[in-house]
Specification:
By secondary structure, the chain is mostly helical. It has one domain: Orthogonal Bundle (N-utilizing Substance Protein B Homolog, Chain A), CATH 1.10.940. Helices cover about 70% and strands about 5% of the residues. It has a two-stranded antiparallel sheet. Helix 2 packs antiparallel against helix 3 and helix 4 packs across helix 5. The longest helix has 27 residues.
Length: about 170
């Protein structure tokens, strides 16, 4: 496998993580998709960051940030914001009775909206890949049961919006 072929999945995963962060920023700051996408493309991701080594009082060092697939990043952010009401309805339908998306933390809402958008609008992404990627993102933010919740909710959504693909692979 070539270096480019190995880098492609990392670039897609980095785009999904950046999209979740951008959706979070849009919700918290009330920023538009174009504004946040521009900020991320100009300086937020894919460049360098100054970081202090953990537990040390030494000077900050430059660390390369992950390069990401810019078209996928922009598509997820724009699409999730444009279809927010529909995505929230999907997520509400996947949640247990008595729960709504409004009861979830902003990070969790951002993860679920990005995942639901990709499952419902990007047929080129296999459902199991999308689910796995967003479970991994949840694991980056949460240490408890939240990644399992993301897995269960996105699986429920995929069984509705991608029923033919999920059922065929699961032998249903």
């Amino acid at each position: 496998m070539t270096e480019v072929a190995r880098a492609a999945p990392r670039r897609l995963a980095a785009a999904r993580l950046a999209a979740v962060q951008a959706l979070y920023q849009c919700e918290i700051a009330g920023a538009s998709a174009d504004q946040v996408i521009g900020d991320f493309l100009d300086r937020g991701v894919g460049g360098i960051a100054l970081m202090a080594p953990e537990g040390e009082e030494s000077p900050e060092v430059e660390v390369a940030l992950a390069k990401f697939d810019k078209p996928l990043f922009a598509a997820i952010v724009r699409g999730a914001l444009e279809r927010k009401a529909d995505l929230d309805t999907m997520i509400d339908g996947a949640l247990s009775e008595g729960w709504s998306i409004d009861r979830l933390e902003t990070v969790m809402r951002s993860i679920l909206r990005a995942g639901a958008y990709e499952l419902s609008a990007r047929a080129s992404t296999p459902p199991r890949v999308a689910i796995s990627e967003y479970v991994d993102i949840a694991g980056a933010f949460y240490a408890g049961t939240e990644p399992g919740m993301v897995n269960a909710l996105l699986d429920r959504i995929a069984r509705v919006v991608r029923a033919g693909e999920i059922g065929a692979r699961d032998g249903a």
